[in-house]
Amino acid sequence: FLSGLGFCYSVINGPTNATVLAGSEARFNCTVSVGWVILIWLSNGNPVLTVLSSQGAVETSDRFTSQNYTSSNGFTSELIIHNTQLSDSGKIECSTQQPSESRFAFLSVQVNGSLFIKNSTLTIKENETVEIVCEALGWAPAPDITWMTNDSFIDKSRYVTQQSQGSNGLHNALSILTLTPMDTEVLTCLADIEALPNPQNATVTVIFVNSTI
Questions:
Q1: Is CATH 2.40.37.20 correct for 11-110?
Q2: Which parts of the sequence belong to the Ig-like domain (predicted)?
Q3: Are 195 and 112 in contact (CB under 8 A)?
Q4: Domain ranges in the chain with CATH number 2.60.40.10
């Protein structure tokens, strides 16, 4: 009868979805009720860390470590994934044995690529139309590109953005802004993905030269 008491525990709270930048840490919590014996963390179906009630965490990789918290109503295991890679994206699962029960969440690892406009300054004459090219290389997923002039957003009809597949699961984007300046202005190309706290930006100063001068 006493051995049966070990079967009465359950997962109280499972992990929640996370979106992080490649190279940073991702953290997931799993709380099980009192009486648990073994807890296994899996990444895309592969076991990456085991926690035993008798001896604590059994870590087999320095990329997957854990911290443990015990309270009156249960035990919480926090899985820490260090130096996250694009390939870590997917299902993160917390599984108990006897009875077998699991909860899962999804990890999205995003890559902050490069962003540039070839020229830092351009000189434009009156009534001259110019195309300004902003290039984003090596992102995951492909970034959302917007343009600003002197701190206000430019209408989407003024630029065209094309996305293409890069190497190693990364994406590129090319945005071409067409405009006929009437004055000197600073143009900013912004690239954004969910994991970035602020969009990355590149700027160009368009110097307007009045032809009557």
A1: no
A2: 9-98, 99-205
A3: yes
A4: 11-110, 114-209
Give dist(CA 144, CA 146) in Å, integer.
Answer: 7
Pick from 196, 199, 197: nearest CA to 188 = 199
Of residues 139 and 59, more confidence is placed in 139
Angle at 56 between CA 50 and CA 60, to 5 degrees: 40
Per residue in 178-199, pLDDT tens? 999 889 999 999 999 999 999 9
Please provide the DSSP assignment of the chain as one string. Answer: -GGGGGG---EEE----EEEETTS-EEEEEEE-TT--EEEEEETTEEEEEEETTTEEEESBTTEEEEEEEETTEEEEEEEE-S--GGG-EEEEEEETTTTEEEEEEEEEEB--EEEES-SEEEEETT--EEEEEEEEEEBSPPEEEEEETTEEPPGGGEEEEEEE-STT-EEEEEEEEE--SS-EEEEEEEE-TT-SS-EEEEEEEEEE-TT-
Looking at domain 114-209, its CATH architecture is Sandwich (2.60)
172: Cα separation from own chain's centroid: 16
Phi, psi of 7 (to 5 degrees): -90, 0
Q: Is residue 3 over pLDDT 90? A: no
| Residues 73-99 pLDDT 10s | 889 999 999 999 999 999 999 999 767
